[in-house]
Amino acid sequence: MASGIALFIDGETKYEAGQLPEAFELYRQAVVQIVNHEDVLQKLPVIGEEFPEEILVCVWQNLVGCFRQDGRGFTQEAYPDGYDLVYSFRPTSSSKAHPQFKGPQGRRVLKAMEITAALTLGLLAHDQHDRSTAAKRYQEGLDVAATHPPFNAVTSGQKHLNKVIAREVQQMRDNLAELVKNDTINAAMVGSGQGVLRKDVLNTPHTRIGHNGADNDGRHLCRSHRRVRKGEMQQAGRRLQTLQCLYENCIL
């Protein structure tokens, strides 16, 4: 079996070529390889502050990023193996299920992956119009973030993993707040006689997410898309070149 970094580089190459399904599968294999057979804390020697240093988290962000892209067909039904891998890092899973993450740094990486899994699963629930599940997944992620202050708020001077995860936590807060706001509005409408008195309206968040990721008022919730801006694509291209250079010279 190829190493995790080799699979990651192959996945990046496929992604840059527009071969998303093939890239996704390579990302999935890379995560499995690193988690089951390699050091989960291995780092990249050269990388920008916008990226995590940990190879595993870099691959993981790319994997969940595929599920977050609109209109690309990355769903639980289409990619069950990838979905099951993400779900296995749902925050409510026991840490005993991932014994490879040892010590303070290992637990830090595990929490980061749990938080990103929670955001991803929440967004997928949104796409299925399952507001209650989406809210639960967001809250699960926020509960994990609350146990590690560097992840729990966006602050100046953050970089690498802390910066990436703090931004994702803020996205979860924004999305959850949007859900709760819609629920409050609908509950008020029921109280004024303008709505239908149904238990599930009052007890579950009521934002409906359309096919394009917009809520029922036309607003777009934070989806943390992967490489949607020109600058990010250029940065990703430079990262791929760096990875290939390091790997070919046996530094990785």
Q: How many structural domains are formed by the residues?
A: 1
Class of secondary structure makeup: mainly alpha
Average pLDDT taken over every residue? 79
Q: Poorly predicted ranges (pLDDT <50, ≥5 residues)? A: 192-234
Separation, N- and C-terminal Cα atoms:
16 Å
Order of helices and strands: HHHHHHHHHH
The largest β sheet comes out as: none
State the helical fraction: 55-70%
Q: Would you kindly provide a brief summary of this structure?
A:
The protein is an all-alpha fold and 252 residues long. 60% of the residues lie in helices and 0% in strands. The protein has helices at 4-16, 20-37, 55-67, 80-87, 103-127, 131-145, 149-152, 160-191, 199-203, 230-248.
Description:
The longest helix is centred in the C-terminal third of the chain and has 32 residues, at 160-191. With 252 residues, the protein is mainly α. The protein contains ten helices and no strands. It has one domain. 60% of the residues lie in helices and 0% in strands. It starts with a helix and ends with a helix. The chain is globular, with a radius of gyration of 19 Å. Helix 1 runs antiparallel to helix 2 (20-37), helix 3 (55-67) packs parallel to helix 5 (103-127) and helix 5 (103-127) runs parallel beside helix 8.
